[in-house]
Amino acid sequence: MFRGFKTFRLWPTLFNAYGFLFLAFLYLPLGLILLYSFNANPINMAVWTGFTLDWYATIFGGAGVKGSFDAAFTEAPERIFAVVKNSFLVAVSAATISTVIGTVTAIALARYRFVGKRFYQALLILPMLVPDIVLGIALLVFFVGAGFQLSLLTIIIGHVTFLSSYVFVVVSTRLAGMDTTLEQASADLGAGPLTTFRRVTLPQIMPGVVGGFLLAFIISLDDVVITYFIAGVGSQTLPLFILAMMRRGLRPQITALAVLIILFSFVVATVGLLLRNRKP
Amino acid sequence: MKGMLGRIVGMASVLALSANMAAAEGKLSLYNWGEYINPEIVDEFSKEYGVEVTLDTYSTNEEMLARIQAGASGYDLVWPSVHMHDIMQQLGLLQPANPNQMPGWENIDKAALRSHEDPNGDYCLPYAWGAVGVLYNKTLIPELTSWKQFFEYAKANPGKVTMLDDLRETLGVGLIMTGASVNSRDPDEVAKAEAYIMEQKPNIGAFRYDVIPLVTAGDVAAGHYYVGGVLNVLQNPELLGFVIPEEGATMYQEDVCLLANAPNPDNAKLFLQFLMRPEVAARNSERLTNGVVNTAAVDLLPDALKSNPSINPTAEVRAKLQIFEDLGKDLRLYTRAWDRIKTN
Amino acid sequence: MIAGDTVRSRRRRALLLLLAPVTLLLGVFFLVPLGIMVVYSVLEPGLYGGVEWTWYPFNYGRILGWPLNDYEEFDPIYLSIFLGSLKIACLTVLFSLLICYPAAFWVSRMGERRKNFVLFLITLPFFANLLVRIYAWLLLLRPTGFINTLLQGLGLIAQPLDMLFTSFAVVLGMVYIFTPFMFLPIYANVEKLDYSLVRASQDLGATPLQTFLRVILPLTAPGIVGGSIIVFIPALGNFIVPAFLGGSKVQMTGNLIERSFLQSRDWPFGAALALLIMASVVLVLMIQLTRAARTQTKGAV
Question: What residue ranges are annotated as transmembrane (chain C) (predicted)?
Fold first, then answer.
């Protein structure tokens, strides 16, 4: 520790205080949603009028909430399940495809030398850097021009275009930290490239692959902007559903749904981060 | 590369096609405004005819048009406003559903056939109409009667009113206040309306659609809103009020139209017929608190609705309501004025 | 096997096979769409959406100053909206930097286990849905929201503060959303900070401020730049945050693009605006790349 810190003994305390403020800034808004989701007051969520589970009940098909000024248009649970199903279908497909593409590409770039490698490296970073709105409308214009019907399929394709880059980065990091002598030994012992990949490379990069998959899965599940432009018939996803609800107004039901989404994302993200942080 | 692209496109369309074929049996896809149909009615239709109904929603006519043009072609019925009905019919996006040949047509108010392109109801069924007025919080404004009062209140309490985030509606208020038609194509008139709204802008809290919770909770005192807000007024008459301002207001009407490439036209026609039943129309209106186009349904409405001056305005008030027409290229006058209003 | 099938050519075929999926994917669904958008941006808007296939440079003219002068007169508002977006994006970068920089030092001084846990805590909110995080701020900032109710309850203010639907709310919301983006690159740099240089500076009699400005800041500059770019890019094109927290009164280029596509039926104009954003992004990246290349060569010398 440098001397400036030692001479001023309050530094560590100040730093710690600041750190807790920083974490509070990150978590208090989310905590507030949690708190509000149990508030019975249907008109003003900031005024506590009692504990209720009604808002959660409406999501799972419980009776309409009495006295709520918008009970008339509480979304039907079947509707919510349908969009959740869509979201999962998209997220699982997009994450699976992009995990395959991202992993295969990462191996190509890590294990082969070829002309144009730098071009590929740049190209793979680009989808993560292009602003969402630009990618969203570019895909919209393309799909319409090429005669695609906007559907869940177009959403999956759109997601794969940028998710592959995320998987690529995660798997590449893993590959870079990996010892190549085992692969070499396997090849020297006469194993074909496929066998070497299956028996040696894959098990070693597996945490990276699974981590990449989960990252892709959660980003796909949360994506709003790109999906917003390329969604078609009956292909509303959960974020689009929430967007539509938010446009119509802030309601306690959204708050309850938000809590469930946060919890789910946190569980998946925790698993993903744990896997990614495991040392190769 | 090109061959490859072709193959991928081909593969994708096969996938999409098979998805659609699976959808063709006993299904109906509706594409409607958010909260613009009583969900019970949809359920009832679904049970009665054994048809699986899906409902997607949009928030502006333009969004719907853009998505239909962008190939969102699995929908059967859409709910365009009258001027958008004209546009869509001209663009060949609709097919005749012939509601005028169906039982129940005799109940439809012929004054509601407002489309220029479809004067006899060969294509679309008039659905509902309503005025765009002001929803207000009575604890903050005891009584509101005019746009003048609305803007004066805003001047005294900056930020406590909202207007719709819709170029034609909000510029429409400017046009009404400067004595022009809401369908004006005269650049000077549009400029005057723009100046009028610009002058009010510092006092307007936001341009938004999600007005009901904001007004109910008292975040804002009053908001430019559709007559559908009366539903909340009826549930909370002490707290909320809705008014068609005395200077006049815009009105809207939506028609239910069958898309040219609808996958389930037969079910769609059944649904139109179902909507024309007086008791169905009445129950729908009860929920929408909109003006009714079904004369037989009016008698079935509860008194609170029948006598509500916003839902069922007097002839004198009706005369002051203006409906939007399609402006073609002149829409750009409005777009640019709106860009300026939102920026400066 | 014929003689040509050497290890080398087999490796070559394997490589082609490995690269094929990504080439196809990014070629067809990334580069081609961006190319189409470039083409659209110089076509005439169709009356009801879509495009007419005629050369029409006036979409850019309307923004930059060579209009057709029928409907498309030049109006500086589009530049001013763009400059406004730049300003909001820069403020977002600045405030996230101010918040994250000290936090990075705080975390870097922890023991291994605690450090990993806190890093996990900081990354986690990034995974909560964007809309949900914006929604939280709507609840906090609205006139009858948490902050105003609290302050009024404590008797600190009589009237609710107007925080929602302002540029302040937009910047705050974006800082909140992008905090992990800024934090992680800075932290990666701060963690590697060589404290022997800091000590040397102090031994030579530098004041803490001098040490900070001359030693610590330059050493952590790459992280600062990296984080700033990663925050700047999505902030510049954002339209969801201004739509909700700005109450549609605070306009950013993203909102204009969205409106061109989904409301005013002017696709080419939207495409032109999107390319304007894209151009700024590319510009920022190129400056960064040349800068990085220069420091690298300097380091080699």
Answer: 15-43, 77-105, 117-140, 164-190, 211-236, 269-289
